[in-house]
Automatic annotation (TrEMBL):
Gene3D superfamilies the UniProt entry points to: Tetracycline Repressor, domain 2
HTH tetR-type domain segment(s): 5-65
Record bears the keyword DNA-binding: yes
Keyword DNA-binding: yes
Name by which UniProt lists this protein: TetR/AcrR family transcriptional regulator
Source species, domain of life: Bacteria
UniProt DNA-binding residue ranges: 28-47
């Protein structure tokens, strides 16, 4: 790796930590430079403005907000199997990156009109493929007749909500980070059982 590439990675890592913690409005370029171990002039050489740096960090995080979902819903597996894979991959990823949901959602709520919503792969990667997968399984008689968008909202909510409310849950459950992570790992099987119960046709 060249020194220039290494410096850029240090900047992006420092910016990611600070943007996730403070958002774009609260973040300071001087703190990002200090954290990356460079001076502010060097930071501006790589990224001319805080907005450009934020957009780069957001784009990188947005790619992983719905990890590998496009490929999951394009397989020949049943809808139940696809959702089980999605739930497991999503929760495992969120356990490694618990602050990403809040970062993504708070950004699009505040700055959706700046084009940040379009950077999320939701429409193509999830909504369209999800609905098509459900319609295909419905024709085969493998799932009951449900509104696929309501099902999608339920699955996303059950996966994302615990991470959005993580500090509240940890405080009220008396849980530290390790206990919360174990709770979410156990949730994988709980959600799989829920999906099988409502989708498997007798």
């Amino acid at each position: 790796m060249t020194q220039e590439a290494s410096t850029e990675l240090k900047i992006l890592k420092a910016a990611e930590d600070i943007f996730i913690r403070d958002g774009i409005d609260g973040a300071r370029m001087q703190e990002i430079a200090d954290t990356a171990g460079i001076n502010k002039a060097m930071l501006h050489y790589y990224f001319r403005s805080k907005k450009l740096l934020f957009e780069r960090v957001f784009a990188e995080k947005a790619k992983y907000f719905f990890p590998e979902v496009s490929s999951i819903f394009q397989t020949d597996n049943s809808m139940v199997e696809k959702l089980e894979v999605f739930i497991e991959k999503y929760i495992l990823f969120m356990n490694e990156n618990p602050f990403i949901p809040f970062f993504i959602i708070s950004t699009v709520n505040k700055r959706g009109n700046d084009g940040f919503i379009e950077k999320l792969p939701f429409k193509e990667a999830i909504a369209q493929n999800f609905i098509k997968s459900y319609a295909d399984d419905l024709k085969l008689g493998r799932v009951p007749e449900l509104d696929p968008m309501q099902l999608l909202l339920s699955v996303l909510g059950m996966c994302i909500f615990p991470y959005l409310s993580r500090p509240i849950l940890m405080h009220n459950f008396g849980a530290d980070e390790e206990v919360f992570e174990d709770l979410m790992l156990a949730r994988i099987d709980e959600l799989k059982r829920y999906i099988r119960k409502i989708l498997i046709v007798d």
